[in-house]
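=== RUN LOG ===
request id: a7f3
mode: sequence -> structure
chains: 1
length: 194
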Amino acid sequence: MTSDALAQEAPQESAAETHEGTLAPGGAHEGGAFPPFDSTNWAPQFVWLVLIFGLLYLLMSRIALPRVANILSTRESTINADLDAARASQAKAQIAAKHNDATLAVKKDEAQGIGREAQAKVAAEAAAHRGAAEQKLAQALAAAEQRIAAEKAEKMKQVESVAKEAAAAIVAKLTGAPADASAIEAAVRSLSAR
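=== RESULT ===
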């Protein structure tokens, strides 16, 4: 035999061996139902079903569900306690806000009063300064008017003497004779009295 023929025989033999291991005892499949659906196995399966579900029911009702109920009640009481604490804190915050608003209103009134007092004080000081300045200016004005009146009187005297001299010179020049001093003085006085 050639190597190709040997290679073909070997896989066929191994396939036959593989199928032999999967056959039911007796060499071939026996004709019957799937074991869980076999009616002869129902009674023991039903007993085990009842035992397992009964045991699960007992475990759930005695151990798991009470723990879950305890957790839920603890959670609910914690949430209620937190809500009560939050409500109490909110009430305290509202009271504090009202107190703060009242304090703020009082402080605002105080600040406005202080502002009004300061404004009145500044206005009074300004009026006092203005009054003192006006008084000083009035005194300075009166003194200036007195100086002006004194200087005016002195200048008028000088003007009168200059006018007398000028009138005497004009009369002497026009007439060629010296002028009468009493007549010139009377004329200058009548002009300055107007």
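=== NOTES ===
The first helix runs from residue 3 to 22.
The helical segments are 3-22, 42-175, 181-192.
=== END ===
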